[in-house]
Amino acid sequence: MDQLLNDFSPGLFFMQAIILLILIVLMRKFAWKPILESLQTREDGIKNALDSAEKARLEMQNLQADNKKLLNEARAEREAMLKEAREMKDKMIESAKTEAETQANTIIEQAHAAIESEKKAAIAELKNHVAGLSIEIAEKVLRDELSDNSKQQKLVDSLIGEATLS
User: Fold this and answer.
1) Using CA atoms, how far apart are residues 92 and 73, in angstroms rounded to an integer?
2) Statement: residue 46 has pLDDT above 90
């Protein structure tokens, strides 16, 4: 430190101080403004970029909210359509059941009617057949009974005896 004080030259000091002041004035006049302007421009650009990023973030939030809203609406619409389809399916099934029951009842009634008519026809045919057999048997019995004159006379007498005149 002593050596620095020994080597100190006031002229050199003033010259360096003047050069420093000149450099500061020149820097202030020619370099300081452009540097401050470029810093200000950069600061403004960063601020604009941050503002744009904030606007984009808000817009993205709005879009996400809109997307969620649309998605919820689409889900609700899908659920409504599915519900309507289920109701239509149930109505169609119920309608088909009702129609099938109606047709089944109609077919059963027709079958009962057909069975009844076939039963009546069979009974009528059976009666006709029994009547025919009865007539044949009666005819054979009467031929056998009436083949002899004495048998004929007995039959007439018994019929007269049974018949009473009032």
Assistant:
1) 28
2) yes
